[in-house]
TrEMBL record:
Protein name: Dienelactone hydrolase domain-containing protein
Signal sequence interval, chain numbering: none
UniProt source species: Leifsonella bigeumensis
Pfam family, one: DLH
InterPro entries associated with the record: AB_hydrolase_fold, Dienelactn_hydro, Dienelactone_hydrolase-like
Gene3D superfamilies, per database record: alpha/beta hydrolase (3.40.50.1820)
Domain Dienelactone hydrolase positions: 12-77
Length: 118
């Protein structure tokens, strides 16, 4: 299922539909890396178990798009220690906006819209 726009919000989300009538709904909140393929895979697996799943992209508005998140993840898993060391300051820089109180207030409002959608 493609990305969807959550009504009455600034968020897009990955939606995974079950093969039959849903048993219920789940919201999958991504990790620090954002809405990367791993999170979409988790949503797909829950959908295969019968749940309607919505995985909102709550970090792109703070500067961590799925592409940036994947790059940061890959840096932290690099076998070269020198490369791994470059990840920490870059992560602090990219995630700075997400640590601001304004972001937290914004995210709560946006996530309420996700709950309403589901």
């Amino acid at each position: 299922m493609p990305m969807i726009q959550i009504p009455h919000s600034e968020l897009t989300a990955y939606r995974a539909d079950p093969p039959a009538a849903p048993k219920g709904g789940l919201i999958v909140i991504h990790e620090i890396w954002g809405l990367v393929d791993h999170i979409r895979d988790i949503a797909d697996r829950f959908a295969a178990e019968g749940y309607l799943v919505v995985a909102p992209d709550i970090l792109s508005n703070a500067g961590v798009s799925p592409t940036v998140g994947q790059e940061l993840h890959d840096l932290t898993k690099n076998p070269d220690e020198a490369v791994r060391m470059t990840a920490q300051p870059l992560m602090r820089e990219k995630l700075a906006a997400s640590r601001e109180p304004e972001y937290g207030a914004w995210a709560i409002g946006q996530l309420r819209a996700v709950v309403d959608y589901l």
